[in-house]
Amino acid sequence: MPVWALTAYGRSLVVPLVPWLRPPAAHDVGARFLEHTLLLNDVLAGLVTRLRPSPTAPLAALPFRWLSEDDGVLEFERYDRTTATTCKSVLKPDAIVEIPGRRRRLFLEAETGTQSIATESPGRNGAVTSKLVRYAAYFQAFAGSEGDATWYKRVFPDHYQPRLVFLVHSDERRARVAAALKAWLGSSPPSRFQAFVLTFDQGARTLAPYITEGLLHAPPARGARVVMIDAAKAERLREGYQQLGEAFLAMRELVERHNATTTGRPLPIPALRVDAVQALEDFIQRELASGASDGESRRSGATHG
Question: Mean pLDDT for the chain?
Answer without folding.
Answer: 79
